[in-house]
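wait is this the right file?? whatever heres the structure
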């Protein structure tokens, strides 16, 4: 199967949207490449790993003129920056669940 830079970015955005729907993680956070592989997205993992070497299918694409990684081209937040925020988000999700379960959704004690 032929992979281009455009296809890799399109597939990455689709993965992120799916992940957002199922795991409530913002779709602007770049996943770790190992995460892609572990979740069965081995083709996307390989394309992301060698993104700079992938061809562009459109001669009019501005992607081809840039020597940047997929993270930069796609405009995503790197893992090292968002992992802290994800832990805070997870805490808030768990707190909401706790209040719903034990206090009928009220945050007052």
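ok assuming it is, sequence goes like this
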């Amino acid at each position: 199967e032929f992979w281009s830079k455009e296809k890799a970015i399109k597939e990455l955005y689709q993965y992120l949207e799916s992940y957002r729907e199922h795991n409530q993680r913002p779709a602007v956070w770049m996943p770790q490449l190992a995460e892609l592989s572990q979740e069965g997205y081995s083709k996307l993992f390989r394309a992301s790993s060698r993104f700079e070497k992938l061809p562009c299918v459109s001669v009019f694409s501005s992607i081809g003129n840039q020597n940047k990684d997929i993270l930069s081209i796609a405009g995503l937040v790197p893992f090292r920056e968002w992992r802290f925020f994800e832990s805070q988000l997870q805490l808030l999700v768990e707190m909401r669940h706790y209040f719903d379960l034990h206090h009928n959704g009220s945050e007052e004690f």
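The helical segments are 5-23, 33-38, 42-49, 70-74, 79-102. so i think its the right one actually
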